């Protein structure tokens, strides 16, 4: 991965390159920011730059032995940790059991989210976790001598998904790693990482990609008109992944939007039979998809509330969402907005805690029925 291939983020790139040149390389760094803004590509490009044998002023050379191995994500001193699901029948219990799938997945597109990764490994109804056993693998790998690079690098994607016992076992090695070892943690929700790990890392806050950078990339890479590119860039709210999903009209967006519309209509009509049907449908889509839908629903409620303020530059809705909002938005107001958001957030927590999904969504719809009439 090259810095030049990452959309925008020039300030962060300059900072990472400068610290590498100056030799000021913290042994544990935490890349934080919203989903889809390029945190993982930045960490990977930084790792490649650190170990490049002939780096230029602004990027890796791409030709040395180290860069060639990094391009294949197969450098012996580069290690990955990421959420997985245990599959006892296939003897898949640690990240290395999925490493072939992981490499192919990243090569296709370095901008991705947890739901896409779990779909790729057919997680179905399981939630992705970094299990306790992974700590033993991490400690074992980092206890080995460096094979051929300047730095031994451990990239941990979504450390907030670590099992608590795994996180606790890593405290010592993160605080006192072996020589020339660098931890790069990449997090969407850093506040969910245990504080003892947070305190051992230098935090790098990464903001959304600028609309101009997203627009320029979409025009050059996907050959869409400047007007459409500007519209997509605005809707993306700084997430290049969201921009890619918008132009591809991905099935997940359609599925979530249609479910949201059905849920709101059934709740407004107090149609118990339809509410039960929706609960059953959502109960079978898998935990990660259920959480993603609830996050989507919270965003929709928030956008519809803002749209009532007649400030179009503050609204981030796709055309189908905006069309539905012309009639639905007035029902989201100052009398029920807090209640709606609280109920959706509570349902998300219940799904996270493995409460029966059909019960969660049935109860949620009933509560929305009462709130939407206010």
CATH topology title of the largest domain: Rossmann fold
Spans where pLDDT lies below 50 across 5 or more residues: none
User: In one word, what is the shape?
Assistant: globular
CATH architecture heading of the largest domain? 3-Layer(aba) Sandwich
Q: Kindly report the spatial arrangement of strands forming the biggest sheet.
A: 2-3-4-1-5
CATH superfamily of the largest domain: P-loop containing nucleotide triphosphate hydrolases
Q: What's the oligomerization state?
A: single chain
Helix content: 40-55%
Total number of β-strand segments? Answer: 5
H-E order: HEHHEHHHEHHEHEHHHHHHHHH
Write up this protein:
The protein is globular, with a radius of gyration of 22 Å. It has 374 residues and is of the alpha/beta class. It has a 5-stranded parallel sheet with strand order 2-3-4-1-5, with helices on both faces. It contains 18 helices and 5 strands. Helix 11 (226-236) crosses helix 12. It folds into 3 domains: 3-205, 3-Layer(aba) Sandwich (Rossmann fold), CATH 3.40.50.300; 209-248; 250-372, Zinc Finger, Delta Prime, domain 3, CATH 1.20.272.
Q: Could you give a short description of this structure?
A:
The chain has 374 residues and is of the alpha/beta class.
């Amino acid at each position: 991965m090259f810095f030049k291939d990452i959309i925008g983020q020039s300030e962060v790139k300059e900072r990472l390159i400068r610290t590498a040149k100056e030799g000021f390389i913290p042994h544990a760094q935490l890349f934080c920011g919203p989903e889809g803004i390029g945190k993982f590509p930045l960490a990977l490009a930084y790792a490649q730059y650190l170990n490049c044998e002939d780096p230029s002023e602004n990027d890796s050379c791409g030709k040395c032995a180290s860069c060639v191995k990094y391009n294949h994500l197969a450098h012996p001193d580069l290690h990955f940790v990421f959420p997985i699901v245990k599959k006892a029948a296939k003897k898949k219990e640690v990240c290395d059991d999925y490493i072939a799938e992981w490499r192919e997945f990243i090569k296709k597109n370095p901008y991705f989210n947890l739901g896409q990764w779990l779909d790729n490994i057919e997680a179905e109804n399981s939630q992705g976790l970094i299990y306790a056993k992974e700590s033993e693998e991490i400690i074992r790998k980092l206890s080995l001598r460096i094979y051929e690079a300047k730095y031994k690098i451990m990239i941990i994607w979504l450390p907030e998904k670590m099992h608590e016992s795994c996180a606790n076992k890593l405290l010592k090695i993160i605080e006192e790693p072996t020589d020339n070892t660098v931890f790069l943690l990449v997090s969407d929700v850093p506040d969910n990482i245990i504080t003892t790990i947070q305190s051992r890392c230098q935090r790098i806050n990464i903001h959304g990609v600028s609309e101009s950078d997203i627009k320029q990339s979409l025009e050059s890479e996907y050959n869409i008109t400047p007007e459409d590119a500007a519209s997509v860039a605005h809707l993306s709210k700084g997430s290049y992944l969201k921009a890619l999903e918008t132009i591809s009209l991905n099935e997940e967006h359609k599925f979530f939007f249609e479910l949201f519309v059905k849920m709101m209509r059934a709740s407004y009509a107090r149609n118990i039979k339809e509410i039960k049907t929706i609960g059953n449908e959502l109960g079978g889509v898998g935990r990660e998809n259920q959480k993603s839908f609830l996050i989507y629903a919270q965003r929709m409620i928030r956008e519809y509330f803002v749209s009532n303020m007649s400030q179009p530059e503050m609204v981030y809705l796709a055309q189908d969402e905006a069309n539905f909002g012309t009639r639905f938005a007035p029902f989201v107001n100052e009398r029920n907005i807090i209640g709606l958001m609280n109920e959706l957030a509570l349902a998300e927590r219940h799904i996270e805690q493995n409460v029966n999904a059909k019960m969660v969504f049935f109860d949620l719809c009933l509560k929305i029925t009462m709130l939407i009439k206010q």
